[in-house]
């Protein structure tokens, strides 16, 4: 595929993608689902932490309970081919085991290298982000990184003709309680960041895709 053909395919995918709330019950193939999930798995994260998990929810009992507290996912929970939970890590401080593990995973294994990088991250969290001693801020930091993976999954899905919808319309406290009760998460260590449905639209959207004028959101400063 040439560069021009790839550009056309990308633009077509962006035009195709819309927030689909009702699907036609057609199942996504395992191959396509795994490609979409790999887009999340391979996504970048701040300082390479990967402070996330992506749970493909297939348990109908949990889905039924989520439906009671997720007003923004009523029809998706019933009709989507797959439903994905984006889980974010809590307490991802510079001195946490997960931070150290992320460094080792990337090949920084010597004591000097580890100490140097951890000191850098301490300065980043304390001075730049002012979040090192704020559990809520630490969770928000990892939670917002999951949106990189969310965007990559939606774009990948659109490229292969699969619809999606990002979901924030739910009671976070109650969802976490349900997921904790069923052993999906350990609420001391992680929490729900957002959800996403995947499938094939039942019908085309009533309204065309609309955006602000491009000049309002994109500018060049010289």
Observed structural traits:
222 residues; globular; 4 strands; alpha+beta; 13% strand; 4-stranded antiparallel β-sheet
Please outline what is shown here.
By secondary structure, the chain is an alpha+beta fold.
Characterise the protein shown here:
This protein has 222 residues and is an alpha+beta fold. The protein is built from nine helices and four strands; from the N terminus they run ααβααβαααβαβα. A four-stranded antiparallel β-sheet has the order 1-2-4-3, sandwiched between helices. The longest helix is centred in the middle third of the chain and has 25 residues.
List the secondary-structure elements in sequence, H or E: HHEHHEHHHEHEH
Provide the β-strand percentage band: 5-15%
- Total strands: 4
Oligomer: single chain
Average per-residue pLDDT, rounded, comes to 96
Poorly predicted segments:
none
Shape, per Cα inertia axes: globular
User: What topology, given as strand order, has the largest sheet?
Assistant: 1-2-4-3
- Class derived from helix and strand content: alpha+beta
User: Separation of termini?
Assistant: 35 Å
Number of helices: 9
What does the largest sheet look like? 4 strands, antiparallel
The percentage helix is 40-55%
Radius of gyration, whole Å = 20 Å
Per-chain topology:
Blueprint: H1 3-16, H2 30-41, E1 52-57, H3 60-69, H4 74-79, E2 82-89, H5 97-105, H6 111-128, H7 135-159, E3 163-167, H8 172-181, E4 190-199, H9 214-217
Antiparallel strand pairs: 1-2, 2-4, 3-4
Helix pairs in contact: 2-7, 3-8
